[in-house]
Known about the structure:
There is one protein chain. By secondary structure, the protein is of the alpha+beta class. It folds into two domains: 11-107, no CATH class; 124-205, no CATH class. It is built from seven helices and eleven strands. A hairpin with a 4-residue loop joins β6 and β7. The N and C termini lie far apart (49 Å). The mean pLDDT is 88.
Amino acid sequence: MPLPKIATPEFEIKLFSQKAPIRYRPFLMKEEKLLLMALESKKEDTMINAVKTILSGCCLPGQKIDFDRIPLFDIEFWFLNLRAKSVGEIIKLLFKCEKCEAENPIEFNIDEVELFVPEDHKNLIDLTDEIKVEMNYPTVKQFAKFQNPGKMTETLFDMTRECLKTIYHNDEVFDAKVQTKKELDDFILSLRQEQFGKLVQFFETMPKLNHTVVFDCNQCNHNNITILQGIESFFLSA
């Protein structure tokens, strides 16, 4: 006689980058184990890859979802909601006081965490009166590819090239996917500093998880304000 199977509820979420809602189930102990192992590593890239694997496993069948094309911030937002539906809305973290460095246990509700989109953010960028570019958002795959803290300048240029979607020159339209790496590099290197700065601003202002934690230190009573951004901030002690 086969062992009984426990039914799991189903949920929907609407992501910033997706037209249709995505249906998913809560994660089970097999996904919980993977998450705990990723947390123990305290490595951001390991955490992100674990999140991607967990979401893929919890996504209900019959949906065409390319996880390698979903922006990283949507992956993070989806996972936080998945975590809330799986183990509860309350997250407990330890925060160090910025004055005395005493550790303070703080709780907050995942439902209060928002995907913050700055008002000045745009992915269609005017470089000149005649030339504009459309940008793609970095994906999990690209994030993992360009994790190289020792080469920040090179990483920024590579990420910019990878995220170029379309280049418009008056009535001409150039699909970045069909251009060679050299052609795209030559285009980027031909920009003035001010023009390249507009592309950098795209990355700096793109949507991100955002939550402000305010607390008075339990040792010195100093008022602390901490802004959490990025998935690792919501699971690792600050």
